[in-house]
Amino acid sequence: MNDPYDALGLTKTATADEIKKAYRKLVRTSHPDLFPDDPGAEARFKAISAAYDILKDPDTRARYDAGEIDGLGAERPQQRQYYRDFADTPDNSYRPSGGFGAGMDPSDLFEELLRRQGRSGGRADTGGQGFAAQGADARYTLEVSFLDAARGGETRIVLPDGQGLAVKIPAGTEDGQTLRLRGKGGPGYGGGPAGDAYITVFIRPHPVFRRDGNDIHVTLPITIAEAVLGGKVTTPTIDGPVGLTIPAGASSGRVLRLRGRGVGHGKGKSKGDQLVELKIVTPPDIDDALRAALAAHLKSHPYDPRTDLMKGAEA
To answer: Is the model's pTM score more than 0.70?
Structure first.
């Protein structure tokens, strides 16, 4: 039950990258804000999120694989620890070490409180550590622009109670990534810490840029003259326009690389590259002079770029 690998459709041999990709793919098909008419979306989303919380951290994943915690992150009972707790209490009665943990579910907390109250003859026994529990976590979705996700930025979301919450978008944020804002969830119980806010980010597509990892892809139109003669042109990047040299004799589909013009992840970390794919575009209106010049050149310099293709098809 609650096997995080099953929840993400993975096996125990899954890599960290496979875990991340599986989670982000499932989030897009299960988030309750995206599927408000699906009664099972919320339950699926909670299961997916809980599974990812276990597997994304190498230490937590190792503890789960070793059987030290269950699929929800709770400690599994250990017989030796149970006996030691039992033996060390003055009245030889068992009470969990550490009192009420900050991560305890509120319903479990009240259950434990009532159990202790019954054992102590109606007096609430909190183990001498007070009644405290962490507040509930809150989950939200946020749609951001392509450039804000790539370069970083800040926006605000409106909470159900009408209050605004500032959200910093780190540079390099990926589609489906979940941001954690500590202490921005529900209030704690009995002086306990507030819960956290988890914000799942969805990125709007961009009309010019495409992203693959930390690299940015752009298709750049060039003229026939620029393809034949070469020259310097201007290309857009996520940080603004830059100059690009087109080599003479360039063909459509050729890819030129602008190093360091891709996505970064904060100061001091290397950026990806921008890959510029060339696309030769003919003028909307071809005049007689251009038509005559091309015809004359083709007559004196016959060339068929499909020769090798046809030979390969017949091999």
So the answer is: no
